Each structure stands twice: as structure tokens, then as C-alpha cells.
From TrEMBL:
One of its GO terms (cellular component) is cytosol. Homotetramer. The keyword rRNA-binding does not apply. This is Aminopyrimidine aminohydrolase. It comes from Romboutsia hominis. Its EC number is 3.5.99.2. Belongs to the TenA family. Catalyzes an amino-pyrimidine hydrolysis reaction at the C5' of the pyrimidine moiety of thiamine compounds, a reaction that is part of a thiamine salvage pathway. GO terms for molecular function: thiaminase activity. InterPro entries: Haem_Oase-like_multi-hlx (IPR016084), Thiaminase-2/PQQC (IPR004305), Thiaminase_II (IPR027574), Thiamine_Salvage_TenA (IPR050967). Keywords: Hydrolase, Thiamine biosynthesis.
Length: 227
């Protein structure tokens, strides 16, 4: 069994909770209140900023130029390619990046990014990479679920651009590259290390769930955590 298949088996119940989450359901239906989406986007924009720094630590801990290039692409993928859709929605919703960057980090955003950054500082490359894996992998999983389940009504859905990004070929390709990399990186680990990496993967998956819970919590008009 591939290491990534083993990891997936360990979290599939948690990931099923993402698919059944009201935030995801309402995104798919196009009924999610824009105010909730706006607050989520701002926190996610701040999240991606910190997430990119985790890959910067991977780059520092890389052993080869090939690996450095891989992480350099991961930084751009997070803070250029992915944030482009955030910026497009944020501009339409009246929170351009300059304003978003003055917003406070919610405790959930802090908890998740601090968890990965602590591993980035003290952990080895395998631990850091595994802590980041639920991020893009689960979003691709959610993107495909939404595409398959709501394809009939996607055309008029305000959230189509978001759904498209996480389910498009470029994102799939990028993820496949990552899964191959993880299987290579973890090809000869001990049982003890396997257990440790599994725990890290589960914890990041739980942080993802907390992020969806935060995104769906009650918000008031203009509730943007402005500093
Ligand atoms: C919290 C979170 N997790 C994952 C992703 C996908 N990169 C994201 N944008 N935000």
C-alpha cells in the first residue's frame, strides 16, 4: 500500500465531515451568505501567507537544488496562483489585499498556522511536508466532490470560480506531483516514524475541520476582525 493511501485511510472519516459541512454544502448550492464567504476569504488569505512561509522553511532544509525548486514552486503556488482567486473575490466584496492584511488572525487561523510553523522550525523535512499535506489534498478532494455533485447548477453559482480552481487540471497535476513526492520521501521509514507522521497528518486534518467550523460560525455584517 502506498504511504499516501495509508494516510488517507486514517483520515477519511474526518474528510467526510468536510464534505457534509454546511459551509461546503452551501458553497455547492451557491446559497452561502456572501458575508460568511468574505470573512472566510480574509482568514484564508492570511492563512496562505503563513502557509507559504512553511514551504520557505522546507526550502531552507532541502538537500538538493531539485528539492529547492520544488518548494520554491510551492511558495508561488500558495501566494500567487491560489491567492489570485482570493484577490478576485476580495476585490468584488470590498476587501482588497491591503485591507485584508490589516485584519486580525482568528484564533483558529493562528492555531493551524502556528502548528505547521512549529514543525517547520523544529521538525525534519518529512514531518513538515506531512503537516502541509491535508491542505491542498483535502481542498482538491472537496473541489471534485462539489464539481461532481453540483455540476448541473454550477453555471450560475457565485462560488464557481472557487470550485473551479480546486478541481481544475492544474491543481490535480500539482497534487499528483506532491503525492508522488511524499511516497518517495517516506519510502523507507520505520514503524515509529510512520506512526509519528500519521499523527501529524491527523492533527492537520483536524485543524482543517476547525477552519471550516470557524468559517461557518455566526458573523455580523462588517465583522472582519479589523485591527
Ligand atoms: C485552511 C486552508 N486549507 C487548505 C487550503 C488549500 N490550499 C486553503 N486555502 N486554506
Amino acid at each position: 500500500m502506498k504511504f499516501t493511501d495509508y494516510l488517507f485511510e486514517e483520515v477519511k472519516n474526518i474528510w467526510q465531515e468536510y464534505l457534509e459541512h454546511p459551509f461546503i454544502k452551501e458553497l455547492g448550492e451557491g446559497t452561502l451568505p456572501k458575508e460568511k464567504f468574505k470573512n472566510y476569504l480574509v482568514q484564508d488569505y492570511l492563512y496562505l501567507k503563513e502557509f507559504g512561509k512553511v514551504f520557505a522553511m522546507c526550502l531552507i532544509k532541502s538537500k538538493t537544488i531539485e528539492e529547492m525548486n520544488f518548494f520554491s514552486r510551492a511558495i508561488s503556488a500558495s501566494i500567487e496562483y491560489e491567492t489570485a482567486v482570493h484577490v478576485s473575490y476580495m476585490n468584488k466584496l470590498g476587501v482588497p489585499p491591503k485591507i485584508a492584511e490589516t485584519c486580525k488572525y482568528e484564533i483558529t487561523t493562528d492555531n493551524y498556522t502556528s502548528y505547521m510553523q512549529a514543525i517547520a522550525l523544529k521538525g525534519n523535512l518529512r514531518e513538515i511536508v506531512i503537516s502541509t499535506m491535508p491542505c491542498n489534498w483535502s481542498y482538491n478532494y472537496i473541489g471534485h466532490y462539489l464539481l461532481d455533485n453540483y455540476k448541473e447548477t454550477l453555471e450560475g453559482n457565485y462560488y464557481k470560480e472557487w470550485i473551479d480552481m480546486y478541481s481544475e487540471g492544474k491543481f490535480d497535476e500539482n497534487l499528483r506531483e506532491w503525492l508522488d513526492y511524499v511516497n518517495y520521501l517516506c519510502r523507507d521509514i520505520s514503524n515509529e516514524e510512520r506512526e509519528n507522521l500519521k499523527e501529524i497528518f491527523i492533527k492537520s486534518s483536524l485543524h482543517e475541520l476547525e477552519f471550516w467550523n470557524m468559517a461557518y460560525k455566526e458573523t455580523k455584517e462588517g465583522d472582519l476582525c479589523l485591527v
